[in-house]
Design a protein that fits this description.
Layout: E1 5-7, H1 18-28, H2 44-73, H3 83-118, H4 126-148, H5 173-201, H6 214-246, H7 259-293, H8 300-313, H9 329-341, H10 343-357, H11 366-388, H12 391-397, H13 401-431, H14 437-463, H15 480-510, E2 540-541, H16 548-555, E3 560-562, E4 570-574, E5 581-586, H17 593-607, H18 613-630
Antiparallel strand pairs: 1-3, 2-3, 4-5
Helix pairs in contact: 2-3, 2-4, 2-15, 3-4, 3-5, 3-6, 3-7, 4-5, 4-17, 5-6, 6-7, 6-8, 7-10, 7-13, 8-10, 11-13, 11-14, 13-14, 14-15, 17-18
């Protein structure tokens, strides 16, 4: 095994050979420039950045669809959108938000930040990382292309059978949905496997499991949840595709199938997905609160255990969505208990944050404002969640706008607000520029006001009986005034998000130079330049506490690992529990094979919509691409 050493003899950059060694590292870890070379990048920061930017674009597109639906619903018997187009917009909005925005952007944040936070130079499988992004991008582009050519799915983002079956949805749109959902989840699974391997085996020496940043813990829990939650929805979408294309009748009662099987498979994924989205946001909140209170998080162990508990308990909630399907009430009672029980670890998180904030001199910068807004919105969403966990109450409000209100309070308040706080927080690290505080405060104010103006009145609509998933309603129902008010609120909410997008855009060129650690934070990503070099760290740091930067500043010294080659893409491997140095792994260089493999797999998946023979074509093309990917190369061919 190659030997590495730990030294603490002052700043390495002060040595005479530092410039030459840095230049060698720059050449070794270079990401090729140019448009064609864009398809060969494997660096984790570039791939993570692409995930984040692409997800935000899909978020904006889903928002536009939502505004169009609100315009349709702002007055009774409106004819702006017909029922078919409304159903397409509704399906595309939900599918985009759940599959193309929420999970990918959380994975993208993990891909970008986790290697920096744990003190390593790249992900465990860089080419697999790139492959996952190209799969995700291809699926998203094809799904939105289906909308523009009139082939979009229209049976809802949940694709309930028999409505999503061939008999009631004969159009090709649902074939597109079933195929692309399976395809998209390949991307999610590749990222999850990579993140687990990277976190367990590439932490800097000394970063034992009980010293990991809470965001890294959150990403680890999220990754394991993805590994267990995504296969059921992939199985369900494949079975539905076989029903539609080969008349297999898994969900057709006349053929011996069972429609409720779809709901069991889908919601076994669907409810954990809410927490797949939420758990990384909880980690973001902890990192931001630590920085802006200038104190370690209160109850670190309790915070970690509550994250793990959320991951476990979330898999026992799927029948929470099926209280009105006729299942035995004795069985439903257990899911009511589980639905109430998951509030306990969530409450532990909130009380630990409050304890950290209590008595602190808080800096009320924009990231912190988004976190404080989260507290108010998420608590409301959590309270209504406990309400719909009660079977008698759920029977009354199921499939009404009360559930729409609850759902959006939890996901926008619980995930999107912390996410935008995290974007303001880590934007200086990614770009080297600070975002405008003035625009950030205005954006937060509009988002917070617009969110409440849009979704709080929906509780009342639901209690008055307005069903969700309808494209119009009669004037005599008396829902017109509230819907008009909600539509106005939706445009205020959209203006808030648009202001943040504008802030991101102009700050790239007009923002103040950030420096390496503008927030005076404590975690390792702030020990690098902004933006970091392609290799992240000139020397791998040694971690001695949960707040390494603060403690190194107090001790006025910093221990570093030496011995890794500057001429090869080497990373340090450490033990799983205590992060003791164990070995060195040589990573592959940039290549176009992940992009070509993604295209080959896409041809097989998308082509099968029109002919089974495309699967054969995609299979053989994928085989040749994998051979090219894995073909051994001599050292000079890796340059």
């Amino acid at each position: 095994m190659k030997q590495t050493r730990i030294r603490s003899d002052g700043p390495i950059s002060a040595r005479p050979d530092a410039d030459e060694a840095t230049a060698t590292l720059d050449r070794t870890w270079l990401s090729p420039p140019g448009f064609v070379s864009w398809f060969t990048h494997v660096n984790h920061r570039k791939i993570g950045y692409r995930f984040i930017v692409t997800s935000l674009i899909f978020f904006a597109l889903a928002g536009i669809l939502a505004l169009m639906m609100r315009l349709q619903l702002m007055s009774p018997e409106n004819s702006l959108l017909g029922p078919e187009l409304f159903n397409q917009f509704f399906t595309m909005h939900g599918t985009t938000m759940m599959f193309l925005f929420a999970v990918p952007i959380m994975e993208g944040m993990g891909i970008y930040l986790v290697p920096l936070m744990i003190g390593t130079r790249d992900m465990a499988f860089p080419r697999l990382n790139a492959f996952g992004y190209y799969v995700y991008l291809t699926a998203g582009v094809v799904l939105f292309a289906s909308l523009f050519i009139g082939m979009a799915p229209a049976a809802g983002w949940f694709a309930y059978v028999p409505l999503a079956g061939k008999a009631f949805s004969p159009e090709v749109g649902m074939d597109v949905w079933t195929t692309l959902i399976t395809f998209i989840e390949i991307s999610a699974l590749t990222a999850a496997v990579e993140l687990v391997a990277t976190i367990f085996k590439q932490r800097a020496p000394g970063m034992s499991l009980d010293r990991m940043p809470l965001f890294v813990w959150a990403i680890l829990v999220m990754s394991f949840m993805i590994i267990f939650a995504m296969p059921p929805v992939m199985t369900a979408s494949v079975l539905l595709m076989l029903d539609r294309t080969l008349d297999m009748q898994f969900f057709v009662v006349a053929g011996g199938g069972e429609p409720l099987l779809w709901q069991h498979l889908f919601w076994f994924f669907g409810h954990p997905e809410v927490y797949i989205i939420l758990v990384p946001a909880l980690g973001m909140i902890s990192m931001i609160i630590t920085t802006f209170t200038r104190r370690p998080i209160f109850g670190y162990t309790a915070m970690v255990l509550s994250l793990v508990a959320i991951g476990f308990v979330s898999f026992g909630l799927w029948v929470h969505h099926m209280f009105t399907t006729g299942l035995p009430h004795l069985g439903l009672s257990f899911f009511t208990a589980a639905s109430a029980m998951i509030t306990i670890p969530s409450g532990v998180q909130i009380f630990c944050w409050i304890a950290t904030l209590w008595g602190a001199r808080i800096r009320f910068a924009t990231p912190m404002l988004f976190i404080l807004g989260f507290f108010a919105i998420f608590v409301i969403g959590g309270l209504t969640g406990v309400m719909v966990a009660s079977i008698p109450f759920d029977m009354q409000v199921h499939d009404t706008y009360f559930v729409v209100a609850h759902f959006h309070y939890v996901l926008i308040g619980g995930a999107v607000l912390p996410l935008f706080g995290a974007i303001y927080y880590w934007y200086p690290k990614v770009t080297g520029q600070m975002m405008s505080e003035r625009l950030g405060r205005w954006s937060f104010g509009l988002i917070f006001a617009g969110l409440n103006l849009t979704f709080f009145p929906m509780h009342q609509l639901g209690l008055e009986g307005m069903p969700r998933r309808v494209y119009t309603y009669l004037e005599v129902m008396g829902w017109g005034s509230l819907n008009l008010f909600i539509t106005a609120g939706a445009f205020i909410l959209a203006a808030g998000f648009a202001l943040s997008f504008w802030n991101m855009f102009i700050s790239r060129t007009r923002g103040i130079n950030a420096g390496p650690n503008p927030w005076q934070a404590d975690s390792l990503e702030w020990a690098t330049a902004s933006p970091p070099a392609n290799y992240n760290f000139r020397h791998i740091p040694v971690v001695r506490s949960r707040t390494p930067i603060w403690d190194d500043e107090a001790a006025d010294e910093r221990q570093l690992v030496t011995g890794l080659s500057n001429e090869r893409r080497e990373i340090l491997l450490t033990t799983v529990l205590d992060a003791e140095p164990q070995g060195v792994l040589i990573l592959p260089s940039p290549t176009i094979w992940p992009f070509l493999l993604a295209i080959a797999v896409a041809l097989g998946f998308i082509g099968i919509i029109f002919s089974p023979w495309w699967f054969v074509v995609g299979f053989f093309l994928s085989f040749f691409m994998i051979v090219g990917w894995l073909w051994p190369r001599r050292p000079w061919q890796e340059e």
